[in-house]
Design brief:
By secondary structure, the protein is of the alpha+beta class. The chain has 2 domains: 10-88 and 230-256, Phosphorylase Kinase, domain 1, CATH 3.30.200; 90-211, D-amino Acid Aminotransferase, Chain A, domain 1 (2-Layer Sandwich). It has helices at 50-67, 104-109, 138-143, 149-171, 221-224, 230-240; strands at 10-13, 17-21, 27-32, 35-38, 43-46, 74-77, 82-86, 89-90, 93-100, 116-126, 175-188, 194-199, 207-211. The strands form 3 sheets. Strands 8, 9, 10, 11, 12 and 13 form a 6-stranded antiparallel β-sheet that branches. Strands 1-2-3-7-6 form a 5-stranded antiparallel β-sheet. Strands 4-5 form a two-stranded antiparallel sheet. 34% of the residues are buried.
Length: 262
């Protein structure tokens, strides 16, 4: 007799992840796809095992953040591609933290790549593929009602804390955290108080990561710039963080990597 396959209620599908209804109220299942996209979806490719690696790396980072008192939406990893996360109201703003000049920042200000900033540069974008993720100010956010002024300040402060902590985590394994983007969600605690969570994911998809010694790119710029070897780069990040080991050479080929229900 064939085993009945469980079905999950689709909540939302994005470029790199899918959200399903969770098993309990206030939870969601976040599924990591193998899709790689760039330039607001204009460039797209499916890279086998990418979602598995991002799932594992994001799990590692979220757990580390929780350990130092930074609240995240992460509850637990369910399998090779899925996480159980807290359902939250997403704030449509991306907080970008830049430690070194790279990417579009260099083009906008006509500067060379690789300049170290004496302190992190904070930028904010409206999360909108249709509009090309435009940069926004505190005033834009307040006027359009995307977030309250105190929420914007809190997101910036949390982003700086996350950046400081992750710079240390990555530096310890020979990696520079060049820049990263963070997304936040709102939830209510048991007493009805509203607070913010770091949500979405933190992985080589959302961070620029360079090898300290060689300058080798270990993030999604390998896809953006047609450098190739994206899965190998993500696997290298996971190895250095101790998430996988040299013997785990087939992690992107495991049957579990297809995300079947267990």
């Amino acid at each position: 007799m064939a085993k009945k396959k469980l079905t999950k209620k689709l909540i939302y599908e994005g470029k790199s992840k899918i959200l399903y209804e969770g098993p309990e109220a206030g939870t969601l299942i976040q599924y990591f796809k193998d899709d790689a996209t760039a330039f607001n979806g204009e460039k797209h490719e499916v890279l086998s095992g990418k979602g598995v690696l991002n799932n594992r790396i994001s799990e590692y980072v979220m757990v580390k953040l929780e350990d130092v008192g930074i609240h995240t939406h992460f509850i637990k990893r369910m399998n090779m591609r899925e996480q159980l996360v807290k359902a939250c109201e997403m704030i449509p703003i991306e907080i970008i933290v830049r430690n070194i000049s790279a990417g579009s920042f260099c083009k906008r200000f006509a500067i060379d790549e690789g300049i170290n900033f004496y302190r992190p540069v904070i930028e904010m974008c409206l999360k909108s593929d249709k509009l090309g993720d435009p940069f926004v100010t505190d005033e834009h956010i307040e006027i359009f009602g995307w977030a309250a002024a105190e929420e914007v300040e809190a997101m910036k402060n949390i982003a700086v804390r996350v950046n400081d902590f992750l710079c240390g985590i990555f530096h310890a394994v020979g990696i520079k955290l060049v820049d990263m983007k963070l997304e936040f969600g709102r939830v209510f605690d048991e007493d009805g108080n509203l607070y913010l969570l770091v949500a979405d994911e933190i992985s080589p998809d959302s961070c620029r990561l360079w090898d300290i010694q060689t300058g080798n790119v270990l993030d999604k710029d390998r896809f953006r710039k047609n450098l190739g070897g994206l899965q190998e780069a993500y696997r290298e990040v996971a190895k250095r963080l101790g998430i996988i080991h040299e013997s785990d050479t087939n992690i992107v080929d495991l049957n579990e990597a297809r995300g079947e229900d267990k």
